[in-house]
Model the fold of this input.
Amino acid sequence: MSKFDAMAARLEAAVDDHFAMDALYDDGTNPPFPVRVIIDLQVEQRTAFETNMPSNRDELEIRKTYVARPRRNHKVVITDPAWTGQTTWVLDGMITDDGHVTRHWLNGSSS
Done:
């Protein structure tokens, strides 16, 4: 492994340790399986809903090593003890896909 690859792996592990949380991914077909995700709450958007007025949406990041092709209406269930109860998030649409990580808008949550 090159020095760059080793540094990149350490950086990725540090980001995962600090920001990611355990969850279950449910595609509605197969049994839910464990993944690590990063959820950003209330991210400001300026181009949403055909207006330039700011709005806020929740967003999720997931590595493609966990889910190669996440799809709209798939669910992510957070079981992190820092959150109250169990929270279910529904993927609403893909924002970006850089080949390694996908980022999605989320629809509502329920406990």
The first helix runs from residue 3 to 19. The mean pLDDT is 84. The domain at 22-110 is CATH 2.40.10 (Thrombin, subunit H).
